[in-house]
Amino acid sequence: MVATLLKQTVQTLDKVVIFGVGLIGGSFALALKQQAAVRQVVGVGRTRAALERALALGIIDEIGGDLASALQNADLVLIAAPVAQTEAILSAIYPHLNPHTVVTDAGSTKSDVVDAARRALAEKVGQFVPAHPIAGRESNGPDAALASLYAGKKIVIAALPENTPASLECVSAAWQRCGAVPHFLTPAQHDHVFAAVSHLPHLLAYALVDQITEQPEAEQRFEFAASGFRDFTRIAGSSPEMWRDISLANRIALLDELAHYQVQLQRLQKDLQNSDGAALLAMFSNAQAARQRWIRTIEAAEKPGVGGGD
Hints:
Layout: E1 13-19, H1 23-34, E2 38-44, H2 48-56, E3 62-63, H3 67-71, E4 76-79, H4 86-93, E5 102-105, H5 111-121, E6 128-129, E7 131-133, E8 154-157, H6 165-177, E9 181-184, H7 187-213, H8 218-224, H9 227-233, H10 240-249, H11 251-273, H12 277-297
Parallel strand pairs: 1-2, 1-4, 2-3, 4-5, 5-6, 8-9
Antiparallel strand pairs: 7-8
């Protein structure tokens, strides 16, 4: 499922336009600036306050006004907004999209984004390179942005048949300048993988915290919650709006993963009811061994992260 790494091209982008200047888009801009890989960053967003804060923090160089001027001579456009907004943004930029401009996104789902791009961009869809950086924090907004967020992290590129080698290289090289390591999956592969290892864990964390808040002893339970609860539920501090959109966008794959997890919960329930210590030990031991292998082969190859949802 992990494909060949594109060769990094050392290049400086003249102009990058970012829709959404919070954690993901802001960190992308800061990383490019730190590497002197971009000359101008233009920010576009829903709220003036966020754009002004990004300008004050040096994340962007200019607040985009009308889209025609914002997109003029842009080399790369990054859509770092909630996935539900992708189609509207692509439709808005379509009339102003220059032939040389490459558009990419940072959404946590890909099949729905590809469908949206085909509807919105029509004959220009080859200029859109779907992507997903596997990095994050539970905090949001321009103040959460970090130049080091993507260092050693994976960037999944879900290339379209219409993408040119030059477009793929532009997106791959930009992320590599941010410190990320490109990998390639199809949109369907991406959505099934991340339903299991990202989207389902977020649903479970949100559900557990919500369940506790509904209990009569909720305040007492939170009072005694410690590091285990904190670690398990950390990602429930991520943006509710973003994860609502992700859950709905990837609901088919997520429903499949939920069904598998419910079978596992029923298995646990049965083992507890039967006081079957051997079965519990076998499950726990298998999970522990699998996690330790993952730590050795994956996390050991990456720089320590700063936490949060991906």
